[in-house]
Amino acid sequence: MGYLYAITRDAELAEEVYQNAAVVIIEKASSDEPIRDFRAWAKEVTRRQALHAIRSRETARRHGRAIAPELLEAISETFCEHESTASTVQEEAKAMQKCVDELPQEKKKLIAMRYEHDATFDEISSRVNSTPAAIQRALSRIRKMLHKCTQSRLALSEGQQ
Amino acid sequence: MSDKNRPNPEAEALILGHFDNSLTERQESELAQRLATCPETRARFRTQMRMEGRLHSLGRDGFLTSAAAQQASAADGLGSHVEHQVTTVAESSSSRRIPPVFTSWVAAASTILLLAAWSLWPSGVNAASVLRQAHQAAQELVDRTYRVTLTNPSNQALEQELTLDIYGGSKFVLRPVDGSYIMGSDGSQFWMARPDGPVWVTSNYRALAPALRRRIPNRRILGLATSPNKPFLLDITELLSLIKRKYEIELINPSGTPEHHIRATLRSEVVNVPEKIEFWTDADTGVVIKAKTYWPDQNIRTLELLNSEPLNPNWYQYQLHAPNAEARRL
Questions:
Q1: pLDDT value at position B264?
Q2: Is A74 in CB contact (< 8 Å) with chain B?
């Protein structure tokens, strides 16, 4: 999902592509045709589905400007070379969840407005009586905090093992 | 990621800017170049990518707001405790100076004023508060049984009646009255069984419908179990979360009635969700008594609360419903 959001920057579209890709993967995976590297193949299916969805949905109309093609390509390559194991990713998810839980109330509210209600910086700023730029900066800081906290937790649990 | 491998702050700002959709064309090119040439930037991008995905997932499932609300209520509870202590201290010190008769009179007058204000003050009920209360009630860890009816004014052949048992928003059992199948979730995995057949089990709900469609060609028998229209919208919790995210809501009936009636209309066109949703809640408990979803294909799904009686603790596990069936993982 993260990859899909990275290239669509649209939660609804990302969800839709995810579902479509899952259907294709499940249907093709159980056919008689052998698949040598399932992981790489599934990633490629997801990438193609996403690119197709982006083109067909005119994201430029919704977001003002479509993502630069070279960036789209670079993100896809970054995604496809990713080799983390499922357990590592799961550990990371758990660590991040704890970090989210520990966020102070007002920071958590900002995160909820942004990620749960898909509110824009303009909308959030009018709700909390601030400016869009200040909200963007605040959310950037929170995400950096979450990243740092998650990495620290992971390093700590690695050290304990 | 160790400090020496951490990308520089400019790269990090570009990554976050990308997810905020705020980069200029030039900045996008710069980020693309950094991703192509710098392994640390790629690693940081991947971490951020996963984080953004998880935050959206948590948001989609309503966990960010509920966590914030829990924290707020805990803080409120703490605040009121502290306030109570402060008030007690203030009362004990002031009571030494003010005669008891006077304080009693002030207390009585305050009570009368409060009662008058209470009766004149407009009730705090609005569509958002009803939705919030319904969401909390749907997450309570109790068994609730609903009758589900599927109707379509232009095609009576599609009509179906089912029973749905829900526990706390994550466990459910769904049974058509004709007994053609039974499906459910024990909170961690989803399962589906037909009489004299195996039990299909998966931890990924999205895998269930397409896999069943392929294995059991007669889709009409399965009906909702393989519906592309998210059968999970039968789950009250998910339905309310969806309303919160994508619908405009209005409170239809005036306050003071025993039930609250909410109408939810889709804000913008979205596939695979109802165009309109209506639900009715118990004004005291917030429990959804009835819900109707109106789909673009004219299908109407209605849920009506039958009872809230406790079920067998193992009710949501497939072993109880298909004890001799072979379990096959999807």
A1: 92
A2: yes
CB B260 within 8 A of CB B280: yes
Residue A8: domain span: 2-80
Residues 89-108 of chain A whose Cβ lies under 8 A from any Cβ of chain B: 89, 92-93, 96-97, 100-101, 105, 108
pLDDT reported for residue B159: 76
On whether the CB atoms of residues B290 and B303 are closer than 8 A, the answer is yes
Give pLDDT, residue B74: 45
User: Which pLDDT belongs to residue A65?
Assistant: 62
A143 vs B contacts (CB less than 8 Å): 16, 48, 51
A20-76 residue pLDDT tens: 777 666 666 655 566 667 677 777 777 777 777 766 665 445 545 667 878 888 888
- Do A9 and A74 fall into the same domain? yes
Domains and CATH numbers, chain B: 3-60 (no CATH), 63-121 (no CATH), 131-329 (2.50.20.10)
Judge whether B131 and B261 are in contact, CB under 8 Å.
Answer: no
Rounded distance, CA B32 to CA B42, Å?
Answer: 10
Question: A95-121 pLDDT, tens per residue?
Answer: 898 899 889 988 988 998 888 877 888
pTM: 0.45
Residues of B with CB below 8 A from A11's CB?
Answer: 56, 59-60
Q: Which of B18, B45, B56 sits opposite A115 (nearest CB)?
A: B56
Query: Nearest Cβ partner of A78 from B28, B35, B62?
Result: B35
Contacts of A118 in chain B (CB under 8 A): 59, 245
